[in-house]
Design brief:
The protein is mainly α. It folds into 2 domains: 412 residues, MFS general substrate transporter like domains (Growth Hormone, Chain: A), CATH 1.20.1250.20; 56 residues. Helix content is 76%, strand content 1%. It has 16 helices and 2 strands. A two-stranded antiparallel sheet has the order 1-2. Helix 9 packs antiparallel against helix 14 and helix 13 packs antiparallel against helix 14. The longest helix has 35 residues. It is globular, with a radius of gyration of 22 Å.
């Protein structure tokens, strides 16, 4: 069934891409530049995690304050992504991309040189602000650079692999830098990524025209940014407070009300921040939900398996990062296969649910780990299955979430994908942390908590609970993706990616 093309704004003149400019001669080099930038943003969500104990010892902040090193980044990034996507559409993707790179590098340098907890938190928040400019600009550049359907599928296969594997790469790189250099290098390393991407972007990317009369939807930006802030903060607050805490529920309820108000306003705004036409296509809507679910469920692997390997089995940070490599290999294999072969031939309806099912099976498999589990026999097999499943979901979902949108909406559609992933990750972190902590506490009731063996078993109970709930997330993903995705391969409309001259 052909998919209707998104309408361009009434005041825009739409023309087809000139043959001389389609496709770009340097499109594969542009993919490399975008990949480097995206890798920097994605791995920054995990690279600092392994360095936290060293940073805490160096700067002297408490266990209660430690979460803010992670939360400050997530709050700024998640709440400003949609605004960043619309800025990319209105003021030019190349300029937004380059400004985001420079700002992210500057914030990383500030964080690396931080002499106090407060400066480090401020630097992490600044990273989130500039990441919110950078991430949607990168994805929209990819969407508009690759206009051929087959080449776009290959490009999104690579992009999906980077988006999915970046967290594991961050764990490995964070371990290497922390062990052999200093925790500060987990931030300084971004200067290298940013420099490479900036030089490539200046040379290869073409400046796009912008509408000088266009306006940013200020009420919409305030509503969605405040709503997402409340949601992310509410979920993060649940990590350090009980779910019944007034602050937790107050922020979550406030976030829901603000986002409902944002949705209502988008139907009335003359210049909507997120045109609802972007969300109403079935495949795009299903893709947004799929990214949300996999963002939540993947933390069951990254976060809790990291704890298990280091605290239960005594792995070093580097060994922990290396342990995730088979999962990265599986993810890269199936993300490329899904984008280039499976989706163009049979469509997303069988592929994405299969990936969700494989991820759910892997999570159930991980619930059997104990203190005597061996890597090659007990840990690596479910990791490979998880990676294969993640690849079948990530690349198709990210590709179809932006497929068929008009060029004037590419940035905000890309931002919506990143927002779903970020909110999903925040939800997953908070929910799984709370459930796993409760499981450990329940296990210790009536037992000698000073006994190391009892403590170790309590940890296993916590991790097993997290894996089980991650499996439940993915099981829900199977049902939702089966119901929402269309049958058959997506129909490619040659007019789906126009150039809009404002």
């Amino acid at each position: 069934m052909p998919r209707p093309t998104a309408d361009a704004p009434a005041d825009a003149t739409v023309t087809s891409l000139p043959p001389a400019e389609a496709p770009s001669r340097h499109r594969w080099w542009i993919l490399a530049v975008i990949g480097v930038a995206q890798l920097m943003v994605v791995l920054d969500a995990t690279i600092v995690n392994i360095a936290l104990p060293s940073a805490q010892k160096d700067l002297g902040f408490s266990d209660g304050d430690r979460q803010w090193i992670v939360t400050a980044y997530a709050l700024a990034f998640g709440s400003l992504l949609l605004l960043g996507g619309r800025i990319a559409d209105l003021f030019g993707r190349k300029m937004t991309f380059l400004v985001g790179l420079v700002g992210f590098a500057g914030a990383s340098a500030l964080g690396g040189a931080a002499g106090s907890f407060e400066v480090l938190v401020a630097a992490r928040a600044a990273q989130g602000v500039f990441g919110a400019l950078l991430a949607p600009a990168a994805l929209s550049l990819l969407t508009t650079t690759f206009t051929d359907a087959k080449e776009r599928a290959k490009a999104f296969g690579v992009y999906g692999a980077i988006a999915g594997a970046g967290g594991a790469v961050g764990l490995l790189l964070g371990g290497v830098l922390t062990e052999h250099l200093d925790w500060r290098w987990t931030l300084y390393v971004n200067l290298v990524f940013a420099a490479v991407a900036f030089v490539g972007g200046v040379i290869l990317l073409h400046r796009t025209s912008r509408d000088k009369t266009a306006r940013i939807d200020v009420p919409g930006a305030v509503l969605v940014s405040a709503g997402l802030f409340c949601l992310v903060y509410g979920f993060s607050n649940a990590e350090s407070h009980d779910w019944s805490s007034v602050a937790t529920w107050g922020y979550l309820a406030g976030g829901a009300v603000l986002l409902a108000g944002f949705t209502w306003w988008q139907t009335r705004s003359p210049h909507p921040l997120l045109p609802l036409r972007v969300l109403l296509d079935r495949n795009r809507g299903a893709s947004f939900v799929s990214v949300l679910i996999i963002g939540a469920g993947m933390f069951g692997v990254f976060l809790f398996l990291t704890y298990y390997l280091q605290q239960s089995l005594g792995y070093t940070p580097i060994e922990t990062g290396l342990a995730f490599l088979p999962m990265i290999g599986g993810l890269m294999l199936t993300s490329t296969l899904a984008s280039t072969v499976l989706i163009p031939r049979i469509g997303p309806k069988p592929v994405v649910p299969l990936g969700m099912g494989a991820a759910a099976a892997a999570m159930v498999w991980l619930t059997g780990l104990d203190l005597t589990s061996g890597y090659t026999t007990d840990i690596m097999p479910p990791l490979i299955v998880a990676g294969l499943g993640f690849g079948l979901v990530m690349a198709p979902a990210m590709s179809l979430a932006t497929d068929g949108v008009g060029a004037e909406d590419a940035g905000v559609a890309s931002a919506a994908v990143n927002t779903m992933q970020q909110v999903g990750g925040s939800l997953g972190t908070a929910l799984l942390n709370t459930l796993s902590t409760s499981a450990a506490t329940d296990y210790l009731v009536g037992r000698d908590f000073r006994d190391p063996a009892v403590q170790a078993q309590a940890g296993l109970e916590a991790y097993s609970t997290a894996y089980g709930w991650s499996a439940a997330f993915f099981a829900a993903g199977v049902v939702i993706s089966v119901l929402l995705y269309r049958r058959g391969a997506p129909v490619q409309d040659p007019d789906a990616a126009p150039v809009v001259h404002m």
